Amino acid sequence: MSTKDTTFIYCDGSSRGNPGPAAIGVSFQDNDGIEFFFLSEKIGNATNNVAEWQALHRGMEEAIKKNLQKIKFRLDSELVVKQMKGEYKVKNKDLLVFKTKCESLKSSFQQFDIQYIPREQNTRADQLANLAQDAKV
């Protein structure tokens, strides 16, 4: 099977204050690591975990809009990855809302994969979240 049409989507959320001003960064990359789309958005006040979930959710929404069928999400939030995979229960009601939304979007994809990666491998998404955090608008 060719992985040429697989899109790697790197997601990160950040909150300054936890809860506090929060933002997300999402980088869409092809199989060669070339970025072809990104999101860098403020999301209001939120906890870090809500920001991480929001980044995943927005990434999934954009992938659907772009009709991407084979996606591999990469996050440095072990909590979100394990909750999404069902390895951890979601007890927080705010996070459960995102888990439910993301679960329902999963069926839109031919292939869906989500994996935890160390923070050092998620620098672009982190940079995008910080750009949104630091934006004056």
Automatic annotation (TrEMBL):
Annotated RNase H type-1 domain residues: 3-134
The protein's Enzyme Commission number: 3.1.26.4
Q: Which UniProt keywords apply?
A: Hydrolase
Matching entries from InterPro entries are given as: RNaseH-like_sf (IPR012337), RNaseH_domain (IPR002156), RNaseH_sf (IPR036397)
- This chain belongs to which protein, by name? Ribonuclease HI
Is the keyword Hydrolase in the record? yes
In terms of Pfam families, this protein maps to:
RVT_3
One MF term in GO for this entry?
nucleic acid binding
Q: What is the lineage of its organism?
A: Bacteria, Pseudomonadati, Spirochaetota, Spirochaetia, Leptospirales
